[in-house]
Amino acid sequence: MTDLQSKQLVDAALERAAEQLGDIVPPVMARYFAAHPDAEVSFVDHQPDNPLGLQAEMVGNTLYFVMTWHERPKEIEITLGTSIPHHIETLKVPAHWYSGLIDAVIDVVAETASPLSAQEAEMWTAMKQAIGQLIALEASR
């Protein structure tokens, strides 16, 4: 599958998710907190006046990574290269929380397909693995 085909699959999936779910933040955060319950307090600690706003911002950033991955993977690599160390060292956000949010966004979007095509499933799996490996690499530096 080409990057253009993958990008088209991502765009169609995000449009489908928006039509079905409207605001994607609540289902993403519910899935994320189910997998990482200790992370919920972190949002309150880092943004006590507006943890929901911080959640929306983080989901927005993650959506940007997902939308941009096939067009400009180096841009995402550079962004993660600065963001991950900052989150780990300064904000005490472990790398698995970071990758967990990416997984939650992808899973929520993918689940809006019924059934999920093999091509789309392959694309999401590859994206999760590639971004997850990048996060692990940056966290190990």
Main traits of this protein?
141 residues, mainly alpha, 80% helix, globular
How many helices in DSSP terms? 7
Order of helices and strands: HHHHHHH
Portion in helices: over 70%
Query: What's the β-strand tally?
Result: 0
- Indicate the structural class: mainly alpha
Major beta sheet summary: none
Shape estimate: globular
Averaged pLDDT: 94
In terms of DSSP E residues, the strand content is under 5%
Distance between the termini: 32 Å
Low-confidence runs? none
Radius of gyration over C-alpha positions, nearest whole angstrom: 15 Å
Descriptive report:
- It is a single chain.
- The chain has 141 residues and is mainly α.
- 80% of the residues lie in helices and 0% in strands.
- It has seven helices and no strands.
- The chain has helices spanning 3-21, 25-35, 39-46, 51-68, 73-90, 95-110, 118-140.
- It is globular.
- It starts with a helix and ends with a helix.
Itemize the secondary structure elements and their pairings.
Layout: H1 3-21, H2 25-35, H3 39-46, H4 51-68, H5 73-90, H6 95-110, H7 118-140
Helix pairs in contact: 2-6, 3-4, 4-6, 5-7, 6-7
